[in-house]
Amino acid sequence: MLSSAATSIIVVLIVFFLFMEGAGVFTKKPIEDGFLLAVSPSNPVKKLEPSQIKDIFDQKITNWKEVGGKDEPIVLFRTSDISTYYTDEELGENFEFFPAKINELISKQPGIIAFFSDKYKAENFSGRELEINKIKVFEFLSGEEWFPTAQPIAQMGVKPLIYGTLWVSLGAILIALPIGLAAAIFLSEIARKKVRNLVKPLIELLAGIPSVVYGFFGLVVIVPLIQSTFNLPVGETGLAGSVVLAIMALPTIITLSEDAMRNTPRAMKEASLALGASQWQTIYKVVIPHSASGITAGAILGIGRAIGETMAVLMVTGNAAVIPHTLLEPVRTIPATIAAELGEAPNGGLHYEALFALGCILFIITFGINLLVELVSSKQKHKKH
Amino acid sequence: MHKIETKNVNFFYGENHALHDISLAMKANTITALIGPSGCGKSTYLRLLNRMNDLIDGTRLEGEILIDGENIYDKNTNAYDLRKNVGMVFQKPNPFPKSIFENVAYGLKVNGITDKAVIEERVHTSIQQVALWDEVKDKLKKSAFELSGGQQQRLCIARALAVQPSVLLMDEPTSALDPISTSKIEELLFELKNKYTIVIVTHNMQQAARASDNTAFFYMGRLIEMDKTKTIFTKPNQKQTEDYITGRFG
Ligand SMILES: Nc1ncnc2c1ncn2[C@@H]1O[C@H](COP(=O)(O)OP(=O)(O)OP(=O)(O)O)[C@@H](O)[C@H]1O
Ligand SMILES: [Mg+2]
User: What region holds the ABC transporter domain (chain B) (predicted)?
Assistant: First the structure.
């Protein structure tokens, strides 16, 4: 009682911390610390959306009137562009004249948008620093590009990652559930005792293998197999992730379903058989309904593992942060993203907080699925009695 | 012709020789009681008659069992068809976790009957046959678990009758019931005798004496004797039978 209360409190605290950190991504300016965007003082545009800035630097927007300014072509300026305007001598040996020159450039060029480091900002800076709107939750969720280290503006669209996660998990469940159920039925209803006593411990053993090992297995066996079977340029695809996850989820699904099936009272099975039902009819009409809750539990834990699983998936899915159209494309999942990027994201920075926000999304997805399954299975139980 | 004939049956659970050279015969529309001390093989014998022991690993049968003149262990006999003809009622009421109606309809549905009118008609008739209709007619959709133990057992009998067997096997069907439920089921046996051949295992001597036409006494896997119930309970041929009936052992 006390310990379960303590566990609950700790879980709530962790979740709270996760959401606190994750929320930072929506309160910070989506530009790298120590950098700024500046425009000519004569430019009437004061504020831009992150997506507009991206389009400007991608040259999809080329005129200021498209973002509410004057009819004036946009001139892009990054620090490295300085050499097209000034010679090395003019900038000085240690770039000591850099700030002054940028200042000059900005006042000379009415259409300029300049992205450069704080340290090159002159004392008597004459340009105007552009205000950037914060990332909105909606943009975060619906953005289609995940490129958190992009310059000048980080791209924090998590849609490809959410899709990647859901596709891979769904694929894994679609593969694992039928196979797991079939194996459980075989073990509990069909196999002889000797076979079961041999096979069951083996399956339980599989659950203890570290996921990296499954990842290697996937990389060496499944990835090439998928590549040659579907004639793909690369085998690292969502499907490879699904297959590896399915293999990892199988022991849980089989063990729990089999236990539940074997708990079906013998009297119930005999009653069915004594009425002339075949073994399959008995399995279908008596054993499976009776073990429905055990099977759902196995599926929940299986899905849970699939969605949260990191290493094995990271190794075989190709990790391209693009919205997948089929399972035969490289995809990137949320856990894989967090694991791969957290180490290189500066502590407390925007990227870092975006990864926490990803963690929140993962939490919400897992929680939602568990809730759904719980609802469905409790409804089923209700129907039965 | 006899309805059920058992010829020199030996039965083994692995190494355990559970039945020794059993030969007996039962006429149609009679009630045969199987009596004997615990572990003597009554249930084993009963379960041979609908091939329920097939489900147990490592069992072996020698000899022949004929029902309606056909060897039920013949390669060509389908165990599922056999079980439709030879219904079984178990010691503990074991309704399915389904509604009262669905319990009785189960056997019909697994046997491929899909016509709703037929199913409904047979369910109603079967429930009436076991004198349960008045008690459950208003709650056919309710769970079978809401019935009392005695009602559940009658429901299980109705469930067996619904598939229209000609033989009914009962393994201590009243041992888990109170005296009133028990006497209801015994009355029921008299009714059912007209249509079915009944084999009933019982530990209750009065029940065997009251309800059956013939009685077979088993002891340590052997059939000691089988005769008219009256004869067995008044002047049995074998000393062992007399000892058992008079309560000197078992
Ligand atoms: N499933 C089984 N596996 C192995 N041996 C069994 C099995 N069922 C019964 N036996 C053995 O067969 C013998 C006869 O058992 P059976 O159940 O037929 O006795 P019974 O006369 O029905 O006893 P009771 O009155 O206690 O029900 C016993 O020695 C028992 O141990
Ligand atoms: Mg018994």
Answer: 4-245
Is residue A25 assigned to a domain?
no
Domain assignment present for A141 = no
pTM equals 0.79
CB of B201 within 8 A of CB of B146? Answer: no
What CATH number is attached to the domain comprising A83? 3.40.190.10
Please answer yes or no on whether A267 and B92 come within 8 Å at the CB atom. Answer: yes
- Nearest to B87, CA basis, from B114, B100, B106, B59: B106
B115, B120, B123, B128 alpha-carbon torsion, rounded to 10°: -140
Closest Cβ–Cβ partner in B50, B87, B143 for A385: B143
Chain A closest-CA separation from residue B225 CA (Å): 28
pLDDT recorded at residue A382: 58
| Segments forming the whole domain that contains residue A224 | 159-384
* A296 & A254 share domain: yes
Read off the pLDDT of residues B17-42 as tens digits, 9 standing for 90 and up: 999 999 999 999 999 999 999 999 99
Q: Residue with structure tokens 């925007």? A: A350
> Measuring from each residue's beta carbon to the nearest atom of ligand 1, which residues come in under 6 Å?
B 13, 16, 18, 36, 38-44, 56
Number of domain units in chain A: 2
Record: contact B57-A193, CB cut-off 8 A: yes
Rounded to an integer, what distance in angstroms lies between the CA atom of residue A321 and that of residue A106? Answer: 36
DSSP state of A136: P
Residue A187: name the closest of B55, A179, A30 by CA: A179
Torsion, Cα A186 A189 A192 A196, to 10 degrees, reads: 60
ipTM comes to: 0.91
Domains of chain B, first to last: 4-245 (3.40.50.300)
User: Nearest CB to B163: which of A193, A268, A276?
Assistant: A276
Q: What six digits make up the tokens of A378? A: 């409790």
Q: Indicate which residue's Cα is closest to atom 9 of ligand 1.
A: B44
- Ligand 2 centroid – CA B109 distance (Å): 29
Q: What are B79's two structure tokens?
A: 């165990």
